[in-house]
Amino acid sequence: MQINSIEAYELAYQKSVEKPEQFWGEIAQSFHWRKPWFKVLSWNFRDPEIKWFEGAKLNITENCLDRHLAAHADKAAIIWEPNDPEQDSITLTYKMLHERVCRFANVLKRNGAKKGDRICIYMPMVPELAIAVLACARIGAVHSVVFGGFSAKSIADRINDAACKLVVTADGAYRGNKKIELKEVIDDALIGCPTVEKVIVLTHTRTPVSMLKGRDVWWEDEVKHVNDVCEAEEMDAEDLLFILYTSGSTGKPKGVVHTCGGYMVYAGYTFSNVFNYQPGEVYFCTADIGWITGHSYIIYGPLSQGATSVIFEGIPTYPDASRFWQVVDKHQVNILYTAPTAIRSLMSYGDEPLKNAGLESLRVLGSVGEPINEEAWHWFDEKIGKGNCPIVDTWWQTETGGIMISPIANVTKTKPSYATLPLPGIQPCLVDENGQEIIGNGVSGNLCIKFPWPGMLRTTYGDHERCRQTYFSAYPDMYFTGDGCLRDEDGYYRITGRVDDVINVSGHRIGTAEVENAINMHAGVVESAVVGFPHEVKGQGIFAFVIYPEHHADEELTRKDILQTVTRMIGAIAKPDKILFVSGLPKTRSGKIMRRILRKIAEGDMTNLGDTSTLLDPAVVTEIIDRAQKK
Ligand code: WTA
């Protein structure tokens, strides 16, 4: 199923459009199914209702583990590189991983988990995180992984939205020279989570933790009570595999739902093709498993293809900015998949950290999460790839389940800052504000997808109408991505960024409404408006305009207080980079905040504010500019 030439790509693409069912049906043959499907696809984007591989039965862990045992039991499935470079790394072969997943699956059962139950996972980047994820899938429980940087309140909201029955966590996590008390955060979260019956706690940092009798149990104790035989639960192709929460332009984060069959096929197919993975190669994705990239391209994609996947606990700059390159050399990494924000951050340290880096093992480089600027692209290409490694700039989303628009390594001619061409099976189109498709090349518009693909979201958990509204109502019969995009003369796609109220901070999606809600919770704040602004390392930063009349206090202290409130309500990742106190916000006569103007001010572009005549009180703008310039 690997595409090895541009002609083969074109043929595959054409077939995927003309005969999509045949195309995907053939690809799906390379996976292990307990029972075949009777229909490859039935769909409509109105409701929406999307079913792939209807009637088929499978378990994704049989594809990620069991099927590799006959020939590759002793091949490395996971190589774990700890935060501390002095500590030994750990290799888990497919056989070992299989045993541990089965054993932990039995622990989940022993603690009351059944098929269909939702399980929240809040863990550091350790092998046990992958084990917990796969153990859920093994027994048909639905995992909801929450990134370690979210606050107790965010976790509680996610747990309650999905009515999770179990939580799997650890005492703590290491991140560079910081230690994070995960269990304590969970304890705070669970005060407001009546559905949680059991918490399984892994020992990692051995920080003192409180263990509640009857609710909390130690991972290490539990695994002693069970064996490592666990038959995989037979799942329907459209049964839920996982929920992953992501931010949108309105209100609270939504639980994006992925199902077993289509997601597996799509994650596996795209992994194998985009990175041109060859048997025996070591693949390193630097994302956190708490995000979709980690789900699809640390766990499910690579393991379904029998690959060796590196899990790195630490950060790129600890103990110093050569850490990524040390990990690459130490484990002889062939494929490195990372984010523009990491590249820009490492770039800023100059050549010194590269002094002792060999990097000869590298063959393919990948980028994901946000637009990659040309400077970062060239640095990555020259300094890391030594001009010899294709860079695959992969555009996709939590909702798409896998990579959508991307070069195929060694096949597609790359072009800096372009995600290039749609993968086979993906039918992108650009749409103007009236919902008309824009035909031809050398054009730009809002990016939509016209036809279903196996990895696409099926619903938003517990609220199907929200799914319809968010993705399928803006343009009839199309999935709307929320991204702006241009298609150049060669038909190459370049993603220009979000066109909705989502900010992409270091590749993390943050809804402006969410941050505003958090700021507004702070005592004394009357109102706030949040916009993104260009940030050298993070891609985008968060700029908050805050109406806070009580200026008696120390402004700097108030600023810190507000940051503390945001950290509590969402997590440190949503802290504004800049806060400007103002006495009013630019609003239209109907009361809508004109973010366009605020964006300009946040960018420091005070001259091109556009038409302000529809504002209720244009004087507000003058005042805001004044304050912004004084700062
Ligand atoms: C952005 C991450 C430009 C985009 C996999 C998208 C990108 C959002 C790229 C999804 C890329 C992701 N070039 N922009 N290669 N990849 N994006 O859900 O705005 O965390 O809508 O999924 O990131 O973020 P998410």
From TrEMBL:
Residue ranges of domain AMP-dependent synthetase/ligase in the record: 66-452
InterPro entries in the cross-refs: Ac_CoA_lig, ACAS_N, AMP-bd_C, AMP-bd_C_sf, AMP-binding_CS, AMP-dep_synth/lig_dom, ANL_N_sf
Sequence ranges assigned to domain AMP-binding enzyme C-terminal in this UniProt record: 514-592
Keywords: Acetylation, ATP-binding, Ligase, Nucleotide-binding
Transmembrane segments: none
PROSITE patterns xrefs: AMP_BINDING (PS00455)
Record-linked SUPFAM superfamilies: Acetyl-CoA synthetase-like (SSF56801)
Residue ranges of domain Acetyl-coenzyme A synthetase N-terminal in the record: 9-64
GO biological process: acetyl-CoA biosynthetic process from acetate
Molecular function terms from GO: acetate-CoA ligase activity; AMP binding; ATP binding
Domain of life: Bacteria
Ranges in coiled-coil conformation: none
EC numbers for this chain: 6.2.1.1
Presence of keyword Disulfide bond: no
UniProt family annotation: Belongs to the ATP-dependent AMP-binding enzyme family.
Name the record gives this protein: Acetate--CoA ligase
